Sequence to fold (412 residues):
Amino acid sequence: MFGLRKKGVTVTLDQLARVAGWIGWGTYSGASVSVQSSLDVPAVFCAARVIAEGIAQMPVRVMSVEIDQATDLERRRVSRDHWAHRLLAVHPNGWQTSYEFREGMVFCAALAGSAIAIKNEIGGEVRELLPVPPGSWSVEQLRDFSLRIRVDYADKTHGYFDASQVLYLRGPSLDGYQGLPAVRQAREAIGLSKALEKQQAKLAGAGGKPSGVLSFVQKLAPETAEKLRETWQAKFGPDGDGGIAILDGDAKFQPMTMSGVDAETMDSRRFQIEEIGRAMRVMPIMMMQSDKAATFASAEQMFRNHVIHTLGPWMERFEQACARDILDHAPGLLVDLDERNMMRGDFKDQAENHAKALGSGGAPAWMTQNEVRAELGMNPIDDPLADTLSRGSMNKTPAQEGSASGTQAPVA
Fold:
């Protein structure tokens, strides 16, 4: 194992890379990119928020799963009385709501590659989940392939935890136990975005006026040159009145920088939004980047694709990490993020779907009235028929009824 050794302590190259990564990764644009500094780029901040908020706004449920012996079909119900459901859906710790906890965990994992929360476990039940900020912990794989997590505390001390003592959420990985930080993989795109923004900020700070050189045929005395520079700066500098410059004595002004339009800076900045979106797997439209070719119909499909292709993998990661670290793969239990509200169409599409679900057109129904009302957030009704599946006969015409029974319907 390569690394540095001092006073009996070995520091591996991987550990040095993690420390250097938290300080910042260098880029060809000259900007140093770290997890913290990347948040200064609006596209990165927006992409991470889109992922984290999307996962957080889905209701999380602990479901019990039973297999019907007669039909071999799964029957699921929400285990609201289970301690894990209360932990994940209501009260993960003393200072965070369920939304805030899930948003923070996914936000950190989307940027830094991984996120952990220490479990406070009593009597086989996890009572609290204590999230640890990025940069305050590291993970290593031991010779027996088990994982050990080191946590650095604010008082300059540290502690070690094994994998069974934490909830460990990680993104895509090369080695199987550490998530790849999206910020590191996209550091060149982020660095270029920061450089372009800095360039535009400096141009705006200079009043949008390019700097340049005043040249004269005759040599000027140092005092004259300094006085001329101050006068020009006062008139045409950032705080000057501007206007038309009148030059004499064979003086010439030569600009030293191009304008933002000439350099096509705005197009470059738009492209950087797309590059950052590629690294984060977030479509530009979800990062508030307008698409002139998008219509209302295509935008709706884009939103569905966002749920499927961007949020879908993070849903699976969160659900399976909780099943492993919270439920310990207990048989008959699973963690579920309910994405149905995010997949709904417009009111017309919902109405048509619910009508078919209730047996419209004569087909057998697959939902009851109370199930439809529950999906719409409405209270159930007491009518016994509201909990009964329609077999389709109530929507048939008299002619269809007669045909189905083998008799001829009377003709008027």
Summary: The longest strand covers residues 114-122. Residues 16-21, 393-412 have pLDDT under 50 and may be disordered.
